[in-house]
Description:
By secondary structure, the protein is of the alpha/beta class.
Amino acid sequence: MEIILCDELLQEIFHRIPPPSSSAVSLVSKRWLRLFRSSLSALSLRLSPNHASFSTLSSFLSHHTYLSSLSLSSSSSAPAAAAAAATSFSDSLLISISATCPNITRLHLATGPVSLLPLLSLSTACPHLSSLSLILSRNRLSFHFLSSFRALKSLTVVLVGNVSPESSPDHYPSSAELQLQSLCLSGIRAGDYQLNWLWRNCSYKTLTKLVFENCDGVGDNYSFSCFMKELKNLHELELKTCRSIVSLILIKLAENHCNYLESLLIYDGGSKDGLLHFIRETRCNLQKLDLRLPLDLDDNHLFEIGAKFNRLRVLRLQSCSMVTGEGFKSLGLALSENLEELSLTNCDVINRHNGFLVELAQNLKNVKILDLSYNHMLLDKEFASMISSYCDLRKLKLRGCSKLTNSSLISLCKNCKHLESIDLLYCHGFQIEGVEFLILNSPELRKLQVISTYGSCYHSAENVHSGQFAFQAVEVGGYMACFFAIFTNHRLRSLWNLIEDLV
Length: 503
């Protein structure tokens, strides 16, 4: 085989090998190792600042000639006193990448703050870079370097450090129009006026996704308001832990009639009045709504959501502490025709209003994806009555539903014949006989996962008919292997008996 197969053919074969088996290719020979490295298009590395050798890293990266996506993270979080060392480490990484990865299009650098000069070198050496994720320090903060990345479409910036005494509004003239499609900002404070350059130079015509995370401000409110006023083509908006600015952003969206908005996510900190105003005044037709607002979401919001967004296809609600069963019943009636995915995670109303899930399911029979994770008081009786309405269910998550028993699995098998994926982690009420019954009676179920005691996923693959995998156990404790496959009952029972013997 070494002689018959040319390099190009081997590389093409390596491209088609599924991930669980691809790691074994590099062990065959030096030639296969070289060709396997050169065939990789994506690479993720976790580096230690204390043991990193940049010459070794450069040599390693130089063997990956077709690398287009690179993700680098640090194995240790540096304290504030070591901020300068973290910056030096990240700058050296950027220099290595600039020298060895000219074809890279996606870079995620989460090792520490970076400086201006290495970023300018990166823009010259990697002209095709379209996605960039990095950390910037508030000390000498500037966004002018972005004008050098001509192909940039997606930008993620995390701001760290204290506000510089010299921090002041950025009065440099606008000299570029960034054709960004996705912008994600994290850690913004009220005094980060250098952000104004971004609002003045980011094209409102191309931006379709905007994300704020752990932000207390938006820079200068006037510059941001002017930017939002022209932002007509926004499709996705995410606000995570941004209580101080949620109301401002939602009101601006409603005022400026952002008609193309399809997806809205708000986590951990909202505004009751701001959200209610947005729902009532907006002209957009939301398709996806994801809310985690334990103290800022009540029945009034659910009534308005049902009245305004009756074409909603995905609804995800987490930690609903202030809503009642009546609000959910009204919402279920309004969304009965189009809703395909429903998530009620850690939903307190399940404990307070017995039977509301059954009534909700009777109105939402088109749901194909259902997530009821961490509803610790969900019982077999209500689950069995509810699941009978979801005959076309394809994916189900019951993670952490500790009160459910094997009876629920039997009801699931009887009613959901097309089930493809199920999550039963941390469901301590299920016994081995119930899981075996589920596997033997769910012909379309297929999945393989390896998960540690602490929940770290070391291997995950779907629709894999053959292959092998290996992993290094770096955490103390037991590891769980879940096998779901399509077999005849006889072969599957033999496999199940083999797993029991191994355990």
